[in-house]
Specification:
With 528 residues, this protein is α+β, with helices and mostly antiparallel strands. A hairpin with a 4-residue loop joins strand 23 and strand 24.
Length: 528
């Protein structure tokens, strides 16, 4: 103990003189505890040598006052936590005087981990008995609580697929180059029609062609046994003609490419030619034994298709107009289209056959007597036909209810390029040169108008409004407006192809510069 007094006196001498003395600093208390422990150990070792047993008293006996005094007092006097409590621990004194926390791990944690690893296999095992399943349920409640089965998130099943046609607007968030999905389109396609017109008594017949739009902006519509003209510029309506017999009806219409001449097909097998400007019937052409359901012009050659399956080609300059009779269909001919330039004639019939007839050659603009290609890929009637304006050898054809597809043909090679399932009856087709797109009118079961981007055939817009199938489509002369005629006895105009303002401004600037240069050239010549 003399050594301890010596250290105490030495510490007192090292202290500074203060007017008030506070509690002893912690580092001084540590030094005293280390010194006292070394003294007590040396004294205990001396005493143990003299002891009969020769063993050092254990820490838990509390026989040494020095050991009990070095224990850290608990925060709440009189209460001590049990070391067997799960998750609890105790502090142990290290030889250098520091505290080290030793956690007490319970076996429950290992059981819980093992249960979680095997939980999916246990739930999916159908061979377990009800008693085993009840035991697993009780174990789950004991380990995870009563809310084990009411979890919000579960990662066992795959996430549901997105609906058809869904586009993720956040697909490209961080990118250095713009992609087509992130480029903002400046084009606007109205989803509502610009104008709705009544068309009472329009026939709900898939095989007829009752609407056509002339180059002079006149729309011809067949309603029952009458033909009406609508001026799209002024909005005026005129009654052109009416059949004498109430049992007969108009079955087809077609405008001549040059002049205001209209061909009208009649249900009795005859065809009438009208001068629209003078509202005068020029002539009536007979020859078919069935109704004339389709008409097409190629300069002065008028082609007509009938229910009997025969196709007549008329030279309207001659008194005996029939110059060729084509036999390529066994049922009604419902589709007729000449290609740009008159190289091919496409005919579609109710026999699911598509024929391609070549030009006769030798200065003749009518076709040969035999088709160059005969396609039978469609599974229903082929009425919708449209030639591509910028690729004259490409033909688009649409099938009826049992087919529902749009097919593309290369008529130079006689091969099918593509086939698209539209999931609806295809009633009519037309091309737009403004954006190089294809428009299709559909019947059962959606009665919609679809605009397709060619050649990838991606839907640009889907226009709805008709309550019955869209039987006919027509394009305005300026190529901006599409007219649809439905079996719901309405005509609707859609402003689908308004030109891009940037391209219009560029074209106007180019025309202005060309006109300015021509004026300058004229002035230079006059000065000379």
């Amino acid at each position: 103990m003399s050594h301890a007094q010596y250290f105490n006196e030495l510490n007192n001498l090292m202290k500074m003189d203060d007017s008030t003395k506070g509690p002893m600093p912690r580092w001084q208390r540590k030094c005293l505890e280390v010194a006292n422990s070394s003294l007590n150990i040396s004294s205990n070792s001396t005493a143990s040598n003299k002891s009969i047993h020769g063993k050092t008293p254990s820490k838990g006996n509390g026989s040494s006052d020095g050991l009990t005094s070095r224990k850290t007092p608990s925060k709440s006097p009189g209460q001590r936590k049990s070391a067997s409590t799960p998750g609890s621990g105790k502090k142990q004194r290290t030889p250098n005087g520091g505290d080290r926390f030793i956690p007490n791990r319970s076996a429950t944690h290992f059981d819980f981990g093992h249960f979680k690893l095997n939980q999916a296999e246990i739930e999916d095992d159908d061979s377990l008995s009800p008693s085993v399943r009840e035991k697993q349920r009780i174990m789950s409640e004991n380990l995870m609580g009563n809310d084990a089965g009411n979890r919000i998130l579960a990662f066992r099943n795959k996430a549901p697929a997105a609906p058809e046609g869904h586009q993720n607007s956040m697909k490209v968030v961080y990118t250095q180059s713009k992609t087509p999905g992130s480029v903002r389109s400046t084009r606007y396609i109205p989803q509502a029609p610009e104008r709705i017109l009544d068309a009472p008594d329009i026939l709900d017949d898939y095989y007829l062609n009752l609407v056509d739009w002339s180059p002079s902006n006149l729309l011809a519509v067949a309603l029952g046994n009458s033909v009406y003209l609508w001026d799209a510029g002024s909005g005026g309506i005129a009654h052109l003609m009416e059949l004498n017999s109430q049992s007969e009806y108009v079955s087809s219409l077609a405008w001549a490419l040059e002049g205001n001449y209209l061909a009208v097909g009649i249900s009795n097998g005859s065809t009438q030619l009208w001068d629209v400007n003078n509202e005068k019937l020029l002539r009536t052409i007979a020859g078919h034994s069935g109704r004339v359901g389709s008409l097409a012009w190629n300069s002065y050659i008028l082609t007509s298709g009938s229910r009997s399956g025969h196709i007549h080609q008329h030279d309207v300059r001659q008194a005996e107009s029939i110059v060729l009779d084509l036999h390529g269909h066994s049922q009604e001919v419902c589709g007729l289209r000449w290609s740009p330039g008159g190289r091919y004639l496409a005919t579609g019939g109710n026999d699911n056959i598509l024929n391609i007839w070549p030009a006769a050659g030798g200065g003749q603009i009518h076709t040969a007597s035999e088709p160059v290609y005969r396609f039978s890929a469609h599974q229903a009637a082929v009425k919708a036909l449209a030639w591509c304006p910028w690729q004259s050898q490409i033909l688009a054809s649409g099938g009826g209810t049992a087919d529902r597809s749009i097919k593309f043909w290369n008529c130079n090679l006689g091969t099918m390029l593509n086939s698209v399932d539209t999931r609806s009856q295809v009633c009519s087709l037309l091309w737009s040169t403004t954006y190089k797109e294809l428009v299709s009118g559909h019947g059962f079961a959606n009665n919609q108008i679809v605009i397709w981007k060619y050649p990838i055939m991606q839907k640009v817009a889907e226009l709805t409004g008709h309550s019955a199938r869209v039987l006919h489509l027509a394009l305005s002369p300026d190529g901006q407006t599409v007219l649809s005629a439905g079996a719901d006895e309405t005509l609707r105009t859609w402003k689908c192809f308004q030109p891009d303002p940037a391209s219009v401004k560029k074209a106007a600037a180019a025309s202005t510069s060309s006109s300015t240069s021509s004026v300058n050239n004229i002035l230079k010549r006059s000065i000379r």
